[in-house]
């Protein structure tokens, strides 16, 4: 089977990464490869929403940790808006606190930046067709997570929620937490809402107290 024959329309893309060198490299790769067309770029998740809205691409290559607006929040917003574009995460991070939120937010696939170019091209084609693509490392993590018994409900904070709670315990503000974790303040507030619900508390001080009492904070 021949992929992307000359008669088929090119797969259109938007590149989202805070490093210009990375965006330039990706643009060069896809411009040189038949069957692809790069429509636009963005340096963070907030700008990505505008660029995707204007260009309506088939696929968005999305980094995750970006100053000015992270990828997970952008993916969730694109999903909420019912965007046609499929989001393929392309990042250097493969921890549970990165992979799971991205996939739960609506990402079609998840690749690491050390993937060979042919694997990246194949992943974009698969994403455009609506097929899920996961790097081997990420697929292994997800399988391990699925097979691991869940923690008791009272301490079942996600890795990201624990990070947020640790920073709250240090007296860090929402804005400072957002900068530290490369996420938006809105995402910080969402994590806090989840933390309060899971710990049965109503404010930051109570959450910290319960966190210490239950051993979550050491």
Automatic annotation (TrEMBL):
Keywords in alphabetical order: DNA-binding, Phosphoprotein, Transcription, Transcription regulation
SUPFAM superfamilies reported in the protein's UniProt record: C-terminal effector domain of the bipartite response regulators, CheY-like
4-aspartylphosphate: residues carrying this PTM: 63
InterPro entries: CheY-like_superfamily, NreC/VraR/RcsB-like_REC, Sig_transdc_resp-reg_C-effctor, Sig_transdc_resp-reg_receiver, Tscrpt_reg_LuxR_C, WalR-like
GO molecular function per UniProt: DNA binding
Domain Response regulatory stretches: 12-128
Occurrences of domain HTH luxR-type (ranges): 150-215
Protein name: DNA-binding response regulator
Species the sequence originates in: Streptomyces cavourensis
